[in-house]
Amino acid sequence: MEKQNSTITRISALIVGLVTNALGNGLTISTNMGAAPWTAAEVNLAALFHLSVGMTMFIAGVLVAITNQLLIRQWDKWRFIGETIYIACFSYFIDLFLAIYKQLGVPQLNIIWRTVLCFAGICIFCAAISIYQRANIVMHPNDDTTNILRFLYLHGHVAQAQLINFLIPITVILLVFMFTRRIDSVNLGTLMCILFNGPLIGIADRHVWHGLHHNFRARASSNN
Q: Which long-range contacts (CB under 8 A, 24 or more apart) does 200-208 make?
């Protein structure tokens, strides 16, 4: 079994991962060249229900956090509270970075530069996911779902876990389309996320922050 990192190291990784995740996701949204499936689904839900994207992200995140409790087959209140706090902070930083990118003129760049920046944003947030999944104090509820599927159900296969986790937002996007007859935030970047998110996270596991281990925790039912 891999050794555990110190608490300070894990907290540092959590903060770096959270902010970097928002930085990368915000970049993909700002370029309008395709966001990650969950982000795209939340953008489309926001349009359907006339809510802000941040509020939609928060509501969806809380619902996913509840689902994670069912997947681990026990009530872990600190995990739930942590994921709720994470999604609240993440939504705030998304809005912050979107404002910065707007001031920098990212949405007005030509399509080639926006595509390059979108792909860069995907690589950035995949590295961020790897970092805070390995720290495993709290994380984005959607990524915790991937982590739970990966280690509890799929024998450590991150690509399979990521693809399964994408099925829900893709279904949501299609259902919303039935009502609005439009799809937002879906483009080349979305396809790249579907095909390469898992492998990119796996690469980051091996090559980004070498001393950070997978501090995975899953209490046995006998300890409940």
A: 200/122, 200/123, 200/126, 200/127, 201/126, 201/129, 201/130, 201/133, 201/158, 201/162, 202/130, 202/158, 202/159, 204/126, 204/127, 204/129, 204/130, 204/131, 205/130, 205/134, 205/158, 208/127, 208/130, 208/131
